[in-house]
Amino acid sequence: MHKIEAIIRPEKLDSVKDALAAAGFTGLNIVHVTGRGVQRGIVHTGRGGETYTVDMLPKVKIEVVVKDSDSERAVKVICDAARTGNIGDGKIFLMPVADAIRVRTGERGEAAV
Questions:
Q1: Domain architecture of the chain: domains with CATH
Q2: Mean pLDDT within 71-93
Q3: How far is the C-alpha of 58 from the C-alpha of 48, rounded, in Å?
Q4: Residue pair 88/10 in contact by the 8 Å Cβ criterion
Q5: How far apart are the first and last CA of the chain?
Q6: Which is nearest to 67 in space by CA: 36, 28, 112, 32?
Q7: 71-82 helix and 13-22 helix, angle to the nearest 10 degrees
């Protein structure tokens, strides 16, 4: 199994959630986070020509655990739904999951996902 953590733009959350559900990935967790990437924030120009930098931007982290055989498909679904083509679209991280346990039934492994 793999845990997929996707950091995306907040305005793309509904698109990604809907695309994952349509692809059969219904179980997920969402965390609202702030952070910055390579661009290190955004520079704004205010009234009077003054500039200021917002270096921590709001993002959403989506966490999904999938079977090994589904990980590439889930990543593609997330990329396609989250992509705007602009800086700040986000990042996706894949991590191996040693085990999963469904608390209600005690099922383990892929059966618990």
A1: 2-112 (3.30.70.120)
A2: 96
A3: 26
A4: no
A5: 9
A6: 112
A7: 140
Tokens of 15: 């698109």
Identify residue 20 by its one-letter amino acid code. L
Query: What would the pLDDT profile of 19-77 be if each residue is shown by its tens digit?
Result: 999 999 999 999 999 988 776 666 666 677 776 667 788 999 999 999 999 999 999 99
The C-alpha R_g of the chain, in whole angstroms, comes to: 17
CA–CA distance, 8 with 62 (Å, rounded to integer): 8
CA distance 105 to 102: 6
- The tens digit of pLDDT for each residue in 27-39 reads 999 999 998 877 6
